[in-house]
Amino acid sequence: MLRSTKAVAAKAARAHYASVAGTPTVLSTANGIKVAAMPGPADSSLASVSLVINSGSRFETADNAGAAHFLKAFAFRNTQDRTSFRTVREAELNGATLTAEATRENITYTVQCFQDAVPYFVDILGDIAASTKFTEHEFRDIAKLVAFESLAARSNPVARAIDGVHQAAFRSGLGNSLYALGSSPVTTGDAVRQYAQAALRASRVAVVATGVDAQALAGLVGESKLSLLTNSAAADLASPKAKFTGGVQQIYESASPVSHYALAFASEPGVSQALANLLGAQKRLKWSAGVSPLAKLAREEGFGVEAFSFAYSDAGLAGVLVSAPTAQIKGAVEKVAAIIRKDVAAAAPEAVQRAVAATRLDVAESLATQQGAINALSKLAFGQRPCTLESVDEAASSLAQTAANVFASKPVAVSIGLSQTTAYVDTLGF
Amino acid sequence: MLEVVARTLQANSAFRALCRPLASTWVNLSGYRRLGLKYDDLLREETPIIQEAISRLNREEIDQRNYRHRRAFQLSLSHQELPGPQWTKAADDVKYLQPLIGEVSQEFAERDAFNSMSTVRK
Lengths: 430, 122
What we know:
The structure holds two protein chains of two kinds.
Chain A: E1 6-7, E2 25-28, E3 34-38, E4 46-53, H1 67-73, H2 84-93, E5 97-102, E6 107-114, H3 118-131, H4 136-154, H5 157-170, H6 189-199, E7 205-210, H7 214-223, E8 248-252, E9 258-267, H8 272-279, H9 293-301, E10 304-311, E11 316-325, H10 329-344, H11 349-367, H12 370-381, H13 389-396, H14 399-406, E12 412-417
Helix pairs in contact in A: 1-6, 3-7, 8-11, 9-10, 11-13
Chain B: H1 2-11, H2 13-30, H3 48-55, H4 59-77, H5 98-115
């Protein structure tokens, strides 16, 4: 197996990965599974292995809406060879942490462990990929967890606003909710199995590791059940290419005295983080609002402004979330919009410089963490470009121009509050 | 020793062929099929293993099982049998619960093994 691996992304090796030791290597096994790994610092025996399946909620259709959430929740459950009880107990004996995460793009099962336990956990990840049972009695268990997670997200206005922003901006595909709603057509373990079978094609699967040598990892993957995955004729998943449509979501919510309003602009995925920093609502200085006009406004008027950004394989979003007492929300949003149009779209060179510096710090800090490294490696494995210091510097030279274009375009808006007191996006002057 | 002999005999196809007519007579004589029950309905259900196995049946199987039980109780109380055509047919008398019981007892044994093990530091 080792001999059949081939380097497919040599240029990745040139990228500079801040304080994480070593450069990433991406290989491909005989059956086409991508293997991406980054060696850790020489004095650390810490490692992580993740099974990344390119089958997040953007690949759901009307017939299986919510399946990605259920597939995430089926992490580390009974397989043909192992009970989930055994997996959990043996992970405990190794002191390992098992986590599962679902994003709009990927479902990721991660094991954090020591380097000597990596072969064992690659075997387990192979088991999960090739032979999870998806039994009905487990599904009934999992459905409770999924229902709780969905309910928790529905009752969190920030999560709801972010979900709404995606729905308004992209409609289907990336617009799909991350959560399986009560009305989800997925009601049996069999339905989840069908989604998993379509998702677990070799070309959709990557094994990503930190603190491990890529060649050795490719060897382990070749010996595990992951080598049984194929690009069979079974229907593949497909997601419509992200297209920013623009729109409004008005969610009537009278129970809370606080209203929320999200404004999001379409951007290239590579610059969305820098644009969010240019909006500059984050409080980076503890005792001062800094010089960011949005942060100053929020402090003077006494409401909350938070910038957010999202970067996907084919689209990006940057925007702000305004939270204010229901009586004030309209005025707050109008002032925020005016500042974005006036000050942020025509940002001074110093403001751009501050945004670039902040983004560099964010990226360096993220890459120095295990989670950040896993995210970057997942992107590399699927042939996308992760955010690195180089990519930030490249975007920096044209950031002012980009901001002028992006913040003059029509945003999407999500309002959670009373329809009588909220602002409407067509009155904000974009 | 006895177990080994039993297992060998069970695996022996000639012995099985010899026993089969006897076995079906025996089962028919035992009478549960005349009350519309299946063999797996008779297993003692007051154990944690079988309780767990029953909880893994799907809704339809549970409903059918409860219906068979209630019908059998009623027949037994009124000292009646089902009319001949409604007796459980040999083909319908399938082991719907025993595979689950096997699965669950393996899981219980595994749990016991983990709970009583000692770790060896290398």
